[in-house]
Amino acid sequence: MSSKTFTKPRKRDVDNAIYGVAEGEENAMRSLYELCGSAVYAYALTVCGNVYDAQDVMQDTFIKVYNAAPDYVSQGKPMSWILSIARNLCFDRFRLQARQVNVTDEALERQLGSTATDATDRLVIKSCLLQLDEEERAIVVMHAVGGVKHREIADELGIPLNTVLSKYRRAIAKLKNILEGGNNE
Amino acid sequence: MNKRSVERKVANSFEHAAPDVYQTVSAQCPARAKAASRKNTLWGWKFATCALALALVVAIVFGGVALGGLNGQTAVAASVTLDVNPSVSLQISGHRSQDYRVVNAEALNDDGKVIIGSMDLKGVQLEVAVNALIGSMLRNGYLSSLTNSVLVSVDSQEGEYSSLAKLVSDEITLKLKESQIEASVVAQWLDETTELEELAAKYGISLGKAQLIKKIIANSVDENYTEDDLARLTINELNIILSGLSITEDDLTQSGTASAQKYIGKDRALEVAFSKVESGLTQENVLGLNAKLDFNDGIMVWEVEFYYGTNEYEFEIGAITGEIVSFEREISEYVPDATQPTKTNDELKAIALERAGVTEVTDVTINIEKCWFWGAKNSVYSVWFEYENTYYEFEIDVYGSVLYSFEQKLDVTADQLMSRKAEDLRAFLESQGELSSLQNVRNLRVVTQMQTDEESGESRLVYIVTFSVDEVKYTYTIDPLNETILNKSVEERKDSIKDWFGDKWDDDWDEMFDDDYDDDWEDFFEDWGFHFDEHGGFGGKKPNNQSTATVLTEEEIKSYLLNQLRGQFGLILLEDTTEWEIELDEERGGGVYEVEFKWNNREFECDVDAFTGMLIRGTWDYVDGYTPEYPSWHHAK
Fold first, then answer.
1. Which of B9, B34, B631 is nearest residue A179 as measured by Cβ atoms?
2. Are the Cβ atoms of B15 and A116 closer than 8 angstroms?
3. A23, A55, A82, A122: which to substitute to probe chain B, counting the most B Cβ within 10 Å?
4. Could you report the per-residue pLDDT of A102-155, keeping only the tens digit for each?
């Protein structure tokens, strides 16, 4: 995707883009993709654990959103809605393939190499996948990449809000430590 | 590296790593039949400003103005449309630095033809033309004290809009004033789009009315207004609806108040609503009262909302018939407590007199006012009286504890001071232009104090009035002898929350507030079990002054707790919960209940304030042996 600096997508923009897609507005799909693409990918990657599945899920998510858009009614949580679609697609894949995935540093390094050319980018992503636990990963990606509120995350994952907050804080601290060279595992 | 930069790193890394699958996606998402395009904002005129010559041609062609008529003036063409029900459009030339003159006047409907009649307005100054048209509308009965609204739609370049709108609005207001009618003018900048033209053509209305309708619909997402409904309404009715919305836009202004004389008054509407709920119910007994005229299901209605007991009520009352059109009641999330103890006036008097050290009193007027505080369970009473040249004032809570006391020898009699009743002070502030609407004022509290003037060193009696509107707390210092406002301060609620946290407030909290709650402090309070204090500010975790209170019963605790958990878990029905264990924690002074229960495969453990039912802290976990469905993969070690 583009290399410009990332800003968290704003709810209203995402909502508008979904409505635009529903109404057949020109460029609405493109804006939706630009607003949510990396969040969907990041989320899919953290759930699936490998780049290929994540890419497929990313594609399927947007197609599903496109199909569901005419019935979309905003409840003020557009990103949660999109990520829940992504999550269900991830779960479907797990069910279909009935497998347990082993994620290794080497595998990820190889898979990420094609798109993430920067070594720091790869380190950040690998750290999210290998050093954080399931919930931490989900929380970090939803909030930092998707701009989803902690409160919505709590609803979405069915865990208490303070747990979300403390996990988020802990996860960011871990990543900070890694990025500052404290632990490069 | 701080938290923010870690966050940004994470976001950027995924952004960079994400593959570009847009082509594949778009190939599978064929273009849908395009709905009517949405309204453009102001680009039309911005573009025109850049290409003035082109814009001029377009405007002239549209308005049918002959170029020769402009005669070398600063060449700007514009149009002003007046809508009441008659619609008249004036094409004008001129510039804000000179006179605007009418180039052509056109009736947009039959009533408009009646208004123009045989008047020839060509070449006339715009003010004069407006004066003549409004005069004609008055004579023909289109404007009166029953319908006092005029819609002014200006189609002009950006720079001309405000001066044109002001000129026309002022002229209308002045003209109606001559007939002792207070005008209400809605002025807007017209932004023509094909969509507007279609809407106007469909209902045979002016572009201006079409735009107003669109704006009302766009700004009232919760209402089910349709174009069909609104197109049938008069400008006065649309104006009434508009007053109920808070639209802040530079290019849409509203002056004066739309006449509601055709309809039953607010008092009558409240009476109808209150009598449905409980006989004898008055404004004093309810919380968060809000009443406004609105349009629903084809008729004008009074929309009345309030909290009473543990319920939230919503009424719609026919504005002409006075009959209840709809009525809803639901359990309130705020739970202002109907079962809280009360003190009778005699009890309050006794407490106040005892506190004042006054024993035998006759002929003393003791004022008692009950103040409700939203979000906290408690309300308080304000009690004040004058006895032997001394002024006494007390705030007494529902348990009889005195929260605030004031005693001062006066060199004036209390009669010389302005009324300190909350309602009168609100009206005073409104008359001073400090409050444009009383509707959202909450947690109003008045206390009397002696204040020393810094310059003169003299002390004087003042009223300190505090209240909140939305998330902002206001404090006014009022001189009750001269009826003047001495000082005013405004504090964002976040500041007072920060104060309460002190050192515990760190960047994480700050960020969480900004990220998660924006302006939605009610939600924050609900999520975290905080409350507003009796001053309308942040009250911390629980109210104090509970020493003489009695603890709540277990049933009350259950109901308060489940209500507070709604923010996070939605509605939890008592019958769905099991295995309650409620114990008063003696180690913590008997003020805290330790509560455990199970619901929906979850186990809850909470500490609840025994006096207020406020959730102090709580945790939950899934019951043993239950795992929610969540796929998992293992790290390769």
1. B9
2. no
3. A23
4. 678 888 888 888 787 788 899 999 999 899 988 899 999 999 899 888 878 888
For B141, other C-beta atoms within 10 Å of its C-beta total 9
DSSP state of B304: E
Calculated CA dihedral for residues B281, B287, B292, B296, nearest 10 degrees: -80
Considering only CA atoms, give the Rg of chain A: 16
pLDDT in tens, B287-312: 767 888 888 777 888 989 887 766 77
Instruction: For an interface test with A, give the residue of B10, B29, B634 to mutate (most A CBs within 10 A).
Output: B10
A38 touches chain B (CB under 8 A): yes
Residues 6+ apart with CB under 8 A from B581: B594, B595, B596, B597
Residue boundaries of the structural domains of chain B: 47-242, 266-331, 355-495, 554-622
What is the nearest CA distance from B16 to chain A, expressed in angstroms? 6
Q: Which two tokens stand for residue B53?
A: 């010559």
Question: B266-331: what CATH class?
Answer: alpha beta
Do B266-331 and B554-622 fold alike per CATH?
yes
Q: Determine the Cα–Cα distance for residues B37 and B29; give it in Å rounded to an integer.
A: 20
CB A140 within 8 A of CB A175: yes
Token representation of residue A39:
């969040």
pLDDT band at A60 (very low <50, low <70, confident <90, very high): very high
Tokens 């549209």 label which residue? B62
Residues 6+ apart with CB under 8 A from B520: none
Domain boundaries, chain A: 11-179
pTM, full prediction: 0.39
Binding-face residues of B in 496-525 toward A, CB within 8 A:
508, 512, 515-517, 523
Cβ contact A26–B34 (<8 Å): yes
User: Do residues B116 and B105 make contact, with C-beta atoms less than 8 angstroms apart?
Assistant: yes
Look up the CATH number of domain B554-622: 3.10.450
The answer on pLDDT for A61 being more than 60 is yes
CB atoms inside a 10 Å sphere around CB B10: 26
Cβ neighbours around B33 below 10 Å, total? 6
Cβ atoms of B598 and B576 closer than 8 Å: no
> Would you state the pLDDT for residue B562?
81
- The CATH fold assigned to A11-179 is Rna Polymerase Sigma Factor; Chain: A (1.10.1740)
